[in-house]
Description:
With 187 residues, the chain is of the alpha/beta class. The protein is built from five helices and eight strands, in the order βαβααββαβαβββ. It has helices at 39-48, 57-66, 73-80, 105-115, 126-134, and strands spanning 2-11, 50-56, 83-86, 98-101, 118-123, 140-146, 166-174, 178-185. The protein has an eight-stranded mixed β-sheet, sandwiched between helices. A hairpin with a 3-residue loop joins strand 7 and strand 8 (178-185).
Amino acid sequence: MAKIIVTEFVSLDGVMEDPGGAEDFKHGGWTFEIDRGEGDKFKLDETMDTAALLLGRKTYEGFAAAWPSREGEFADKFNNMPKYVVSSTLESPEWNNSTVLKGDVVEAVKKLKQEQDGNIVVHGSRQLAQTLLENDLVDQLNLMMFPVVLGSGKRLFGDTADKKRLQLVESRTVGDGVLILVYEPAN
Length: 187
């Protein structure tokens, strides 16, 4: 059985929108303004331990536009591993090893978890991440929290049907005050 890991860059006020600057957000690229230090190694290790990516359509399209032209072990891993994209509109994904999951998202992800092994990692994909969290399908939540308040933007956590208790299993500070926080559901 696979493990679903949601990994996100977030500001102190929970904003996750456009950390890399590829979108049209007034604070786009905000993560590049702060040194991550050993956080880059954390992201590389996370990627090397990934068996497959699970992405929402918008994040998938951004990744598919960026990663195929890049080189290096991180890019090679992203480009060659299986990618699953949740979408009701995407018909023919062109990025190598991509499969569209259609229909009920919760059922499709439950099936994927049963059929696969290893870590299936969700980057970005706010709506998908919220759906997975809401339906208790996230086995681990990796947050890289940057010491900045953005004041506006799309936030990772939206309204939920009920509270979700998490347990902190790892924390460390890297670079210029960036927190790496790893959570699992509290049982």
